[in-house]
Each structure stands twice: as structure tokens, then as C-alpha cells.
Amino acid sequence: MRISKLEKYRQIAEFSNVIEPSVEDLQRAPSDLYDKWNTAFFKRVGHLVLEVGCGQGDLSLGLARRFPERNFLGLDVKGARIWRGARTALDEGLKNVGFLRIEAEFLERLFAPGELNEIWITFPTPYLWKPEKMLVSPTFLSRYRRLLAANGILHIKTDVMSLANYVCNIWPHCGFHLLNLTNESPESPEPAFLDVCTRFEATAIERQKRIWHIQADPVSGNVTPISEEIARFPWNQI
Ligand SMILES: C[S@@+](CC[C@H](N)C(=O)[O-])C[C@H]1O[C@@H](n2cnc3c(N)ncnc32)[C@H](O)[C@@H]1O
Question: Got the DSSP string for 24-54?
């Protein structure tokens, strides 16, 4: 039976595994769960992983099944997509995955410095027309750097070559050290990361597109503020 978007919004408001913080509240004060996601939301200590722009939560669900000892949060602004992931987690009884419906711009009101062990950005929308909204931009990178633990890891998967080039060129200027670049193509397939595949990744594979998985870790110490020139670097013109 097809469920309308409105019905999905109504249902996620009641799901125990979905948090929908109010923007007004976050503007006033950090979330009640700030620095307490493991203890107060998951009610156990664990390696905490955030997927930003999780869509239907395929990666968070897939990793949660693989790593039952870790805690996973999928964040997206779209309630109908969150509903799919949250419904699946409830149906499967997966207790180590939760979902947050909010704009990623509020990350620093949700998480304390060093609270996250991993951040994943999976197939981000290339916001050509609104670079400040790009989840891989220097603005977001400085947020991720503050929120990741010292030995944390930032991952991105994309099928957009210019976006992968952008990441390789810009992230090292934003306090991240590139660890690994996996270049997966249909002709010479590398093992997909833990064979967990998102909806957008499945479409890319179907279209025989190349997929980049780039991993980086935060460098210690202060980072020289990036120049205006780098901040405005037009990723689509590399
Ligand atoms: C291209 S989809 C990819 C979805 C999923 N990661 C996948 O691979 O199937 C990008 C997702 O990022 C979400 N998104 C983009 N910008 C966002 C933001 N600033 N805050 C929260 N979600 C965002 C969109 O709502 C969308 O669901």
C-alpha cells in the first residue's frame, strides 16, 4: 500500500528511532542530546558514526547490520526518505541505528567537539547553483573537523568525477589528510566498501558509472585559515 508523504511525516513524529529537532530550539540552545548520543539515545557506549545526507539510510542500515557494536545516525532533511530507513530499522529490530531529520547546517548544535568517530557523506547533491550548501565545502569541512574525534575518519562516496577532484584538491587545505582513494569502475571493480550500497550508488552502478570512495582524517593542531581563493574554488571547473 502506498503511503503518502504527509502520512510518513506523521509517522516519523512517533517513531522511537527518529529525532526531529526544532530549528527554533537549536537556534536558542544546543540539543538535549548534545554530547550524549551514546549514553542518552543509544543507551550504551559505542563507536559513533554519522551519515550526512543519508537519504533512505541505506548505508547507515547496512553498516548497523554489519557492526552491531557500533552506533549509527543517519541525518537528512527529507522526512519521507528518513521514514524508509527508520521503518526498516524498526521492522528489523535494529537498535543501533537512529535518524535525525534536520538541515546539516545545524550539526554543531547537535554534536559536541570530538563526539563522532566517523562521518560519511554518500553521493552528495552537487549544489552547482548554491556552493555554500555543498556538504563537501570548506564550511562543512571545518564543522566535521571540530566534531570528529582525533582519530576519526571522514568518508565520501561519489560518482561525480569533478566532485572527487574537488575533494582531493581542497580537503588537504581544510585540515584533513587524505588516507585512501578507491576508484571503482565497472571494468575494474575494486571491492565495494563492505558491499553496502546506497540507493544512489545502485543507480550509478546500473549506469556503469565510476565511483570514488575517498577517506580522510583530521590533522592535529591548528589549521591555517583557508584563503578566499580556495574557499571560492569552483569545483565544477577543475
Ligand atoms: C543525492 S541524495 C543521496 C542520498 C543517499 N546518501 C544515497 O546515496 O542514496 C542527497 C541527500 O542529501 C540530502 N541533503 C542535501 N543537503 C542536505 C543538508 N544540508 N542537510 C540535510 N540533508 C541534506 C538530500 O535531502 C538528499 O536526501
Answer: HHHHHS--TTTT-IIIIIISS---EEEEET-
